[in-house]
Inverse folding.
């Protein structure tokens, strides 16, 4: 009887693992949920980004759209084995600004909140918009306890206008790949 039980457990484990991997791949193919808000001064794109660190997030403004790429990593826990690998590791999101939008992409900021949201603020401008803006932003992490004090006035660690996408002090912590994506650090 124990041989049949062992076969059943092995089969069950294989099914769980394959279903989990399929769920992770499906999550990776689904764009990140995003809300686009607007007031008189700026646009605010709010992406769902649960379980990520600032160093996992890459944000850029490209031709009238905010693009987000998240590369998460699973931690290994000693004494545990993976039974159901269901979380996607590479997630993407994009939101188009309205066609008439005039923004200052160089002054945009990105803030990763403790509640698992990524807020990208893009100030409006009256100046003509350059068509070929491709800027990378660095993501700042903010504790919810400090959020009231910092709210949306939080000092960004970098702005989109910086050539490297980071402040000079943090330039050693960032790598840019061939696609123009810039790794953000906390």
């Amino acid at each position: 009887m124990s041989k049949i039980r062992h076969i059943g457990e092995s089969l069950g484990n294989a099914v769980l693992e394959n279903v989990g991997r399929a769920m992770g791949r499906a999550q990776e193919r689904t764009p990140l949920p995003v809300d686009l808000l607007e007031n008189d001064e700026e646009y605010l794109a709010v992406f769902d980004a649960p379980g990520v660190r600032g160093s996992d997030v890459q944000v850029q403004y490209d031709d009238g759209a905010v693009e987000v790429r998240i590369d998460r990593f699973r931690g290994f826990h000693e004494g545990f084995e993976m039974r159901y690998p269901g979380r996607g590791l590479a997630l993407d999101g994009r939101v188009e600004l309205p066609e008439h939008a005039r923004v200052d992409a160089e002054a945009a900021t990105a803030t990763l909140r403790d509640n698992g949201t990524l807020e990208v603020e893009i100030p409006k401008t009256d100046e003509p918009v350059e068509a070929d803006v491709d800027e990378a932003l660095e993501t700042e992490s903010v504790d919810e306890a400090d959020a009231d004090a910092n709210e949306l006035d939080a000092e960004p660690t970098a702005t989109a206008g910086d050539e490297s996408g980071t402040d000079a002090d943090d330039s050693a912590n960032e790598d840019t790949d061939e696609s123009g994506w810039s790794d953000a650090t906390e």
Notes: Confidence is low (pLDDT under 50) at residues 144-186. The beta strands are 34-38, 42-48, 57-62, 65-71, 90-96, 109-113, 117-123, 134-137, 139-142.
